[in-house]
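Ticket closed. Logging final result for Histidinol-phosphatase.
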Amino acid sequence: MKIDLHTHGKWSKDIDFSYDYYETMMREASKYVDAVALTEHFNTKDFLNIYEVLDDMAVYHNGYYLVEGVKVFPGIEVDVAEQSHILVIGSREAIITISRQLDSYRSANNFIPLERLIEISEYYQCLTIGAHPYREENPLAHVHPSLIARLDAIDINGRDLHKYGLSMEQKVQQFADMYNLPSIAGSDTHQPLQFGCVYNELPYSCDSVEQIKEVIIQRKHQFTIANDLHAKVMSAEVEQKKYKEAWKVS
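Final structure:
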């Protein structure tokens, strides 16, 4: 099973979730992967509405939604007090509950401490991933080693491979190795055009996050970085800019 473990369902945190737009994203995703983790930002506009819409428009198969033939595993990207970003992927019920528990931590001066988020994620048996560890705005490398070691994996990020260069793969791999953690690939896409720039390949099809987590922890997965990664990310960024400019005008 091919899966992208870091994706978004909206091109901006400030807009409503559109199922039409998400269908377009999944149609494009289906050309490259069998599954995605929908790790939308925890402080996006009306986070829980995403799952209300998905419940109305798609079928939940006790672990994932099916949209345009793509398995969509629920998730959330959380800003923590340490200024890092953490991906939490789990069941629909777990992600909805975690989002509600984050209600008192949504302001920039009061983000949840990483240790507390890890405790919550562990309680709900989620997959917990340190996102883009060397991104200048949201680094992870400065966090206390005891906390990093409690994560399940580290994100080799498609956008960062484009921004900082392909050598970022080795840098992140070395970082993960320091903590004996596996590396996974995530496109971090907000646009259809970026799908396929990176993805993970699991040895068999998974129907639950627990199964995915087991494969990753046992390091039975492989990840691929596409030869046209730069073109994909660049095209998506151009499209993103057009969307935002048009939205400002409207």
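The CA atoms of residues 205 and 211 lie 9 Å apart. No further action required.
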